[in-house]
Amino acid sequence: MLYADVIIDISVASLDRTFQYRIPPELTGKVRIGSPVRIPFGRGNASRKGYIVGISETPKFPPERTKDIAEVPERELTIEDRMVELAYWMREQYGGTLYEALRTVIPVREKVQKKPKRIIARTAPEDVIEEAYRTAVSKKHKAKARLLEPFCSQEFIPYEVAVGKMSITKPTIDYFVGEGILEVVDRTASGFGGDGLPFALNEEQQVAADTILKRRSEGKPFLLFGITGSGKTEVYLKVIEQILAEGKQAIVLIPEIALTYQTLLRFFRCFGDRVGYVHSKMAAGDRFQMSEKARTGEISVMIGPRSALFTPFPNLGLIVIDEEQELSYHSETTPKYYSDEVAKKRAEGCGAAVVFGSATPSVKSYYMSESGKYVLLHLTKRAKEGAELPKADIVDMREELNAGNRSILSRTLRKALTECLSRKEQAMLFLNRRGYSGTVSCRSCGEVLKCPHCDISLTLHKSGNLQCHYCGHTTKLPNVCPACGSKYISAFGTGTQKIEEYIKKEFPEARVMRMDADTTKGKDGYDTILSAFSEGKADILVGTQMIVKGHDFGKVTLMGVLLADMSLGVSEYSAAERTFHLLAQAAGRAGRDRLPGRVVIQTYRPDHYALLCAAAQDYPEFYKQEITYRRMLGYPPCTSMLKVLGLSKDEGVLSEAMKELAAAAQAEGVTVLGPAPDYVRYVQDTFRMVLYCKAASRDKVKQVKDRLERLSFENVSVQFEFSE
Ligand code: ADP
Ligand code: ZN
Ligand code: ZN
Fold first, then answer.
1. Hey, which of 73, 185, 201, 392 would disulfide with 615, CB 3.0 to 4.6 Å?
2. Residue 374 sits in the same domain as residue 294
3. Is 281 left (phi over 0), alpha (psi -120 to 50) or beta?
4. β-pairing verdict for 717-723 and 640-648
5. What is the reported pTM?
6. Mutate-to-test residue for ligand 1 from 384, 385, 548, highest number of ligand atoms within 8 A of CB
7. Domain range spanning residue 280?
8. CATH code: domain of residue 86
9. Contact at 8 Å (CB) between 692 and 674?
10. Which one, of 301, 287, 307, lies nearest residue 251 by Cα?
11. From ligand 3's centre to the CA of 261, what distance in Å?
């Protein structure tokens, strides 16, 4: 006899409250974990709907006191059924518990005060607004100009976007209300539908949109490969217009960091209040409210980072994943899912189209379209007249050293920066590091100061404290080396803070701003720095990779990349791809508007194909080289790989367990690499070891995962992750 654990209330708070029911013999073949069922519940045996989350052979209570599952509903599945189904699939694919998967898929139910839904609308004609806008610009009233700018071409903006993403204060809004050119109104009363698409698509865009709409029934995803500025967003908008006309809904994923108010406003402008959005800093209550609006049909387009994938639209017609190569689409918490795979799975269930968009597609997606599994669509021209792709120079830093230049700026970059400043244009300097001065080491004995809980070197911050970026452990910089007592301990390497100081010293007349994890900690820190820079409050922006992700700064004409090869040193098969994406994006930042742009890439490996191709903005050539290398060494996407990560406080126990796992995997007939200590050997006093299994197909490595999952070890936890 089989027994099922059933959850009744689909809300995160009660996911772990299960009730056991008997599975009557006639239903045995019809149910599995994840199945919706109807059950008698409580004293009156009221019929309730629930989901099976576990099946076992042992009753928790005397069998005669256990009730039977009444029936398996045969009717069409509801959106909840399908989301639970998706969670079940994710658990199967990516491991972890069903509880963890459900928690990812189901919104946290929160009571919220219904906030008034308001918009800011213009009450004056366009030319009056434009006049006021020009006045604000000339008087350098930045906030006023920022608020008025969208109204030069559209009727309204959501109030919460203005005071949130746009960092506009209430007095600024009130000022224009007082002037009689803007008004704040209740959105429900006005019911703005949006203005439709702002302009006609060009030929390439039209072909892309038509192809998506025509061929979506084939069930293949589309890869929209379009250079930066080619107008991919306009293609999405066009397709969404049709989807909405059919009474269906659309989800648009955009990496959090690229989800600026400009992007949001483009969607609001077209589709009005049918657009909703989420972001990671949103309160749980607001998120839940958004998700309810989606479920009940109040909104039809959802924009957000990867979690927006789980928006409970009942009749989903389209999923767009923009900048699909971004790492942030891969979840870092269990279940460690890939958004592209989940999107395909979800779309398959409801016949929705999936569109991946990128200027530099992931090697995986391009490989898929090469092998005919995706439909490839090309946008080869910039949509706006006049914008040219910038010219990129690669500077060999070894030659700089030979010529006696020990500074972090090459002669080429220094000259370009000087020229850029004298033209009163803006520059960005990109460094892929964080913190004041990297690691601290002893010059006498070579000891590197490490976190006592993690196998990670501590980073010196300007405050004089040493900090661990893994666990947050903070300590004072010691006066002498803890190993040998030498007083010659010093910081090593270069961080954004140090570069900022250096640039301020070298270019005292320039206004310098910094953007990295430290300066963007607050709720709106990131948006504040971005808008300040785009309003011209600084001449140079120094920062980490945050500064290279998808922003349009018309006046930036120089992008300097300091130490481009840093990310090539990472011990992962995808290191070259990551480096290429970063550099190609960085190179695309300069010269977005009318002004010609310039890019200077500093490196110690000037002949590496990832750098050369990024500088030339030549994706096809990069792909050709990269796929050859992956094929040769049997890396994904040419093979399927499974990473098995073991964690334990006891290194010996862990090592034994990993050997056993390796043997079990070998017995399944796949190639096994390792076990070996992880790149980081321990974190928070827990040891980490990895082994990799490689096979021709995902099905095969999944079979291995299922096999290994059945093994269990005392004091060792094991995590699985597919990589491709
Ligand atoms: P991508 O996302 O491909 O980098 P965007 O969609 O952001 O490009 O478009 C770049 C710019 O070109 C935007 O300012 C957009 O308004 C403009 N644009 C796009 N399509 C057209 C078009 N058909 N006609 C005129 N301008 C366009
Ligand atoms: Zn020492
Ligand atoms: Zn630590």
1. 392
2. yes
3. alpha
4. antiparallel
5. 0.82
6. 384
7. 203-379
8. 3.40.1440.60
9. yes
10. 301
11. 36
Ligand 3 centroid distance, CA of 567 (Å): 22
**Closest alpha carbon to 199 in 390, 378, 385:** 385
Query: Which residues are close to ligand 3, an ion, with C-beta < 5 A?
Result: 451, 453-454, 468, 470-471, 473
The CATH number of the domain holding residue 702 is: 3.30.70.600
Q: Tell me what pLDDT residue 402 has.
A: 83
Q: Which amino acid is at 187?
A: R
Q: Do residues 571 and 622 both lie within one domain?
A: yes
Task: State yes or no: pLDDT of 465 exceeds 70.
Answer: yes
Do 611 and 588 have their domain in common?
A: yes
What separation in Å is there between the alpha carbon of 197 and the centre of ligand 1? 12
Residues having CB within 6 Å of any atom of ligand 1? 199, 201-202, 205, 226, 228-234, 383-384
Round the average pLDDT of the chain to a whole number and report it: 85
Q: What is the mean pLDDT of residues 27-31?
A: 84
Q: Are residues 99 and 132 in the same domain?
A: no
Helix, strand or coil for residue 455?
A: coil
Same domain, 71 and 130: no
Residues 230 and 368 occupy one common structural domain: yes
**Dihedrals phi, psi of 2, to nearest 5 degrees:** -110, 145
> What pLDDT is stored for residue 45 in this prediction?
85
Give residue 496 CA to ligand 3 midpoint distance, Å. Answer: 21
Last residue of a domain, one of 138, 165, 190: 190
The closest-lying atom of ligand 1 relative to the alpha carbon of residue 230 is: 3
Answer with the one of 105, 128, 160 that is the final residue of a domain: 105
At residue 125, the 3 state secondary structure works out as coil
Q: What is the DSSP string of 615-659?
A: HTT-HHHHHHHHHHHHHHHT-TTSSEEEEEEEEES-HHHHHHHHH
Assess if residue 482 is contained within a domain. Answer: no
Return the residue matching tokens 């994840």.
34
